[in-house]
Amino acid sequence: MSEIIFRTEGITKVYDTGEVKVYALAGVDLELFKGELTVLLGPSGSGKSTLLNILGGLDHATEGRVWFDDTELTEMTDRGLTKYRRDHVGFVFQFYNLVPSLTARENVQLVTDVAPDPMPAEEALGLVGLGERMDHFPSEMSGGEQQRVAIARAIAKRPQILLCDEPTGALDSTTGVQVLEVLRDINERFGTTTVVITHNAEIQRMAHRVIFFQDGKISETRVNTERLAPSEIAW
Amino acid sequence: MQAIDRKLLRDFQRLWIQAIAIALVLACGVAILLTSVGMYVALSETRTAYYERNRFADVFSHTIRAPLSLVPEIAQIEGVTGVEPRISGHAILDIPGRTRTAVGRILSFPESSNPTLNVPLLIEGWFPDPTDTNEIMVNAPFAEANGFHPGDSFSANLSGQKRSLTIVGTAQSPEFIYTIGPGAMMPDNEAFGIIWMSERAAAAAFDMTGAFNEVALSLAVGTATEPVIDALDELLEPFGGLGAFDRTTHPTDAFLDAELNQLKGMAAILPPIFFAIAGFLVSMVMSRIIALERSEIGLLKAVGYTNTEICLHYLMLAGLIAVVGVLIGWVAGTLLARTLAWQYAQFFNFPYVIFHVSYWVYAAAGLAGLATTSLGAVQSALKAANLAPAVAMQPPAPPRFKRSVIDRAMTAMRLTQSTIMILRSVLRWPVRSLLTSLGLALAVAAVIASIFINDSLDEIVDLTFYQTNRQDAMLLFAEDVPETVLEDVRNLPGVMQVEGQQFHTAILRNGHRTKRVAIDSRRPGTDLSRVLDDQGEPIDVPPGGILLSRRLANHLGVKDGDQLETEFLSGRRETFELTVIGLVDQHLGLGAYVDLEYLNALFRQAPQISTVNVTLDDSQIDALHTAIKDIPSLTGIIEMNVNRRSFQDTIENNIVVMNTIYIAIAVMITVGVSYNAARIQLSERARELASLRILGFGRGDVSYILIGEMMLIALIAQPIGWLLGAWIARAMTNAFTSDLYAIPLVLKPAVFATGSLVVLGTAFVSVMIVRRRLDRLDLVSVMKTRE
Fold first, then answer.
1. Residue B534: φ, ψ to 5°
2. Which residues of B touch A161 (CB under 8 A)?
3. Which of residues 259-298 of B touch A (CB under 8 A)?
4. Taking the model in full, what pTM does it have?
5. Which helix (H) or strand (E) holds B64?
6. Which residues in chain B land under pLDDT 70?
7. pLDDT at A226 over 70
8. ∠ CA B140-B146-B151 to the nearest 5 degrees?
C-alpha cells in the first residue's frame, strides 16, 4: 500500500456569494494510496464533500493542484474531466440518486452503456446481492436496496476509485451495515481505492486510514492498525 | 436500446398529457399548413387541368353584332391558334312549378357539335341536335337546383317569342365555374342557368344569322395577350366591340384567383402562430423538467455522460413531442385537405378534383414543427448541459424575492398572504408570466379574428341591401330604352315605386393603370338605389364628373379632382376626360357613378335607362312574374331579397365552418398553455402548498393559490388578446380585399367578450383539471421528498 493514487497540494475552495467569502477548503495537502479504504470524518460543513467532488472531477478547486496518478486534474478541461469520470471514477451518494424512471438493471446500464470496459449490469447487481430484484423500479425498493443499486452502478465500470458521500447517511443501522459490507467486499475483491465520507464516527473503524476534517482543513490523520468488519460495527 | 433512451421514453410516457397538449397545438400548425397548401395546389391544378382539357380560351370579347366573315381575319392575328365565334343572349325562363322567373344565358352550340374552345363537359345525356331548334343542353348546377334531367322541358321568352325547350343534356364548363346572373351578387343556380342551343335556333332567336356577338380566342404558348387584345379590339370596333379581355379578367378566373390568394394568406399567417406557441410551450415545460431533474443531470455527469449527450437527451424529448405533433398534423391535415378540396370542388362546380400534396409540403411542415420545438427546447437543454455537476447534485437555492415598492403596496392594501403569494410569483417570473399571457392572448385573438366577420358581413348586408340597394327588384332590359318605359313598368301588377338607372361598360385609364367597369348613372334624388358618402348619408352624383369608390380610385391611382380617361364601350364608343368629383367607401364591387342627364348630354342623346328599380306589393308578386314572362324586351328580374338570402346563405355556411375551426383552435391553444402552466406551477409549489395544508389551510385555500395565479395571468392576457385580435382582424380585412368585395372592419364589444369568455372558460376548466391533483397530494411524502 505504498503507491500513491491521489495527491493534492494546498487546495482551497472558496464560495463567493457576493457579500461574504466562504472557505469550504482552506489549503488541503493529502495523499491517498492504491487499494486503500479511507474514511473522511468530520462535522457538516467541514469540507469533506467539497474535497470528494474535486477528487471525483465534479468540481474545480479555487486554488492548489490535484494529481490522479500522474495526471493533473486541476489542469483538465470539462471535457477531460468528463472522460476521467467516465473511465476511472465510481460515485455513491447519500440519497442514491437513482433515475426513478429506470429499473435497477437499467440504472446500472446507464453506466455500462458509456464506460470503456464495464462488467455486465447483472453481474454488478449480483455482487451487491440484488440479482433477484434487477427489474424493480427504485420506488419498489427499500432505501438499502436502492443504495446497493447505486453501488452496483458505481462498480459496474470497474473503477479505480470509488467515492462514497455519506453512503449510509439515509439508512438505519442494520441496512447501513449491509451497505458497508458491500463496500468492503468490493475494496478487497477488486482492490478498488475507496473513499468514504461520513460524520458517523463508528464507521472509521473499518478503514485502513481515517482523515479528520475541521473547518476546511485536515485536523488529524490516523492509521488503523486493527480494522473491524462492518458486522462488528453498530450505531 | 441504451438506458438513457429508455429514460427518454419513460419520461415521455409520464408527461404524456402535457406532451399531447403541446403536440396538438403543433399539429394544428402542421394541419393548417397542409390543408391550405393542399387546397391551394388542388384548386390551382384542377383549374389548370380543367382549363386545358376543356380548352378554356385565352381572350374573350363581346360585340353588338359582327359578321362571321370576320372570323378568318381574327384568326390571322399573330399568335392566335383558334377562334370560336358564338351567339349569346339572355332570356327570361318560365320554369314549370316555379312562379318566379329565372334567367337563362343562351349560347349557340356550333353546327359541327364540336366546339374548339370552351368545350362543355357532358355530364348527362347528349349534345343538342344542330338541326333541332328545340333541343338544349343546360349547365349541371342549374339542372340540379331545379331537378331537371334530360327529357324535361321549360319555356323561354326568346326575343318576344315564347318557346318550349327540351333538355337533352347537362354539362359543365370551365367558363362557368362561377356562374353569376346579370345584376346578381352571388351565384343562384336555381334562378340563373346556362343554356346551349343549336346555332340555328340561337341565330333565329337573336337575329344573328351569319353573325356573332361573342368571340373566344386561344393563343400560342408564350403569346402576350395585350397585342392580341388590341388587334381584336380594332377588328371588332366597327361592329360594336365591347373591349376584349384576357383570362385574368374573366369572372370565373378572377373569382378563383381571389380564393387562391386567401388560401395563400392562410398558409402564411396561421401556421407560424401555432409553431411559435408550440415552441413556447416546449420551452416552458422543458425548463421545468430540467429543474426537476437537476440531480439526475448531476448524476449523468458524474458517471461520465458528456455535455453533448445530455443536451441531445433533452432535445430528443422535445423532438418526440414534435414527432407526435407532426404525425397528428399530417394525418389531420391530409384528411382535412381532402375533405375541403371536395367541398371546394362542389362549390365551384368542378367535375373532378386533382388532389395531391407533394412530399415536400409534408417534409417542410414536419421540419418546421421539429425546428420550432427544438428552438423552444434548446435553451433548457443547453442549461442542462452546462450545469456544473457538483452544483447540480445540490438542491437549487430558493428563488430570490426582494422587497420592492409593489410589496409595500401589497402590504398597505392588506392583501391576504395567499394573494401576496400569487402576485409575487407572477412578478418573480415576469417573462414567463408575460409569455404565458401572450399564448392565451393569441387564443383570444384567434376567436376575435374569426368571429368579427359575422358583424362585418351584417354591415355589408345592411349597407348593400338596406341602405344602398333598397329596391325590392331590378328589371333588366336587353338594350337601353327611353325613360318613358318607367310609366309602362309602373302599370305592371304589384309595382309601387319605379326609378330608372343606366349601366355602361367602360374602360377607365390613368396612365398605364386601367380598369374595366360598369358605370352606373342615375338621376339626382333617387331613393331606391342610393350612393352613400363616408358618413352613410345618401348623396347625389354631381353633374360634371365621375364619382368613384375609394378602392377603384386607389386601383387607378387617382384622387378627388384628377382627370380620368373614360372609354365607353357601348353606344358610339366615345372617349371622354372626366373629372373625379368625389370618392365614396364601398364594400361590394368597384363602383363608378355619373349623373344620368350629364352622361346622356355627353352622348348627345335623350336620357335612356337600362334597368328599372321597383318596390313591390308582396301580395301581387306572382302576378308580376306572370306578366314579366311575356315582356320581350326584358332580359331578367333580380329580386333583392333572393339575392340577399343567397348572399347570406353562402357566406354563413362558410363562416359557421370557419368559426368552429377557429374556436376549436383557440380552445386547443388555451388548454395547451393553461394546462401546462398550471402543471408546472403545481410541480414547483407542491411542497409549499403541502406545507400550507399541514399548517391548517383547507383545500379551498390552497386551490385558490393555484387557480388564482393561472386566472390572473389569463386576465392579463385579455387586453393583449383584444389588441392582437383587432390587429389581426384589420390585417385580414386588408388581405381579403379584392375587386369583388372589401370587408369592413366592424369590431363590436360582444366579439371581444366572446373571445374572452371562450379563453377564460377554457383556462378555468384546464386549471380545475390540474387542481384535482391537489386533492391527491400526499402531505407526508411531499414533505419527505428531497428537492
1. -60, -25
2. none
3. 295-296, 298
4. 0.74
5. strand B59-67
6. 183, 185, 395-403, 738-740, 778-787
7. yes
8. 70
CA distance B12 to chain A (A): 10
Q: Which of A53, A87, A153 to mutate against chain B (most B CBs within 10 Å)?
A: A53
Contacts of A233 (CB under 8 A, 6+ apart): A177, A180, A202, A203, A205, A206
Rg from Cα positions in chain A:
17
B405 touches A at CB < 8 Å:
no
Given CB atoms, is B304 within the 8 Å cutoff of chain A?
A: yes
- Of the candidates A82, A93, A106, the beta carbon closest to that of B304 is on A82
Continuous H helices in B404-479: 405-412, 417-428, 430-461
Give the closest-approach CA distance of A234 to chain B in angstroms.
Answer: 26
Res B402: pLDDT: 66
Whole-number Cα distances in Å, B168 to B98, B286, B335: 21, 68, 38
CA distance to partner chain A, nearest, from residue B17 (Å): 17
Burial of B763 (0-12, 13-18, 19+ CB in 10 A): buried
Taking an 8 Å cut-off on Cβ atoms, the answer to whether A97 and B14 are in contact is no
> How distant is the alpha carbon of residue B639 from its chain centre?
26
- Residue B455 neighbours by CB distance under 10 Å: 16
> Which residues in chain A have Cβ-Cβ distances shorter than 8 Å to B388?
58-59
B614 with B498: CB under 8 angstroms?
yes
Among chain A, residues having any CB pair with chain B shorter than 8 Å are: 53, 56, 58-59, 78-79, 82-83, 85-87, 89, 91, 93, 95, 97, 99, 101-102, 106-111, 113-115, 153, 157
Contact B449, B729 (CB under 8 A): yes
Q: Are B759 and B440 in contact (CB under 8 A)?
A: yes
The nearest alpha carbon in chain A to B304 belongs to A86
Cβ-based neighbours of B202, under 8 Å, separated by 6 or more? B86, B87, B89, B106, B107, B108, B109, B208
According to the model, what pLDDT value does residue B787 have?
Answer: 40
**Which one of B10, B302, B388 has the shortest CB-CB distance to A85?**
B302
Contact of B600 with B594, CB cutoff 8 Å: no
CB-CB neighbors (< 8 A) of B307 in chain A: 78, 82
What are A17-72's pLDDT values in tens digits?
Answer: 777 888 899 999 999 999 999 999 998 889 998 999 899 988 889 999 999 999 99
HEC assignment per residue over chain A: CCCEEEEEEEEEEEEECCCCEEEEEEEEEEEEECCCEEEEECCCCCCHHHHHHHHCCCCCCCEEEEEECCEEHHHCCHHHHHHHHHHHEEEECCCCCCCCCCCHHHHHHHHHCCCCCCCCHHHHHHHCCCCCCCCCCHHHCCHHHHHHHHHHHHHCCCCCEEEEECCCCCCCHHHHHHHHHHHHHHHHHHCCEEEEEECCHHHHHHCCEEEEEECCEEEEEEECCCCCCHHHCCC
Contact at 8 Å (CB) between B290 and B380?
yes
Largest CA distance in chain A: 53
In what order do the strands lie in the sheet containing B80-86?
A: B80-86, B211-219, B59-67, B245-246
Q: Which residue of B has its CA nearest to A83?
A: B304
Q: Is B68 on the interface with A (CB under 8 A)?
A: no
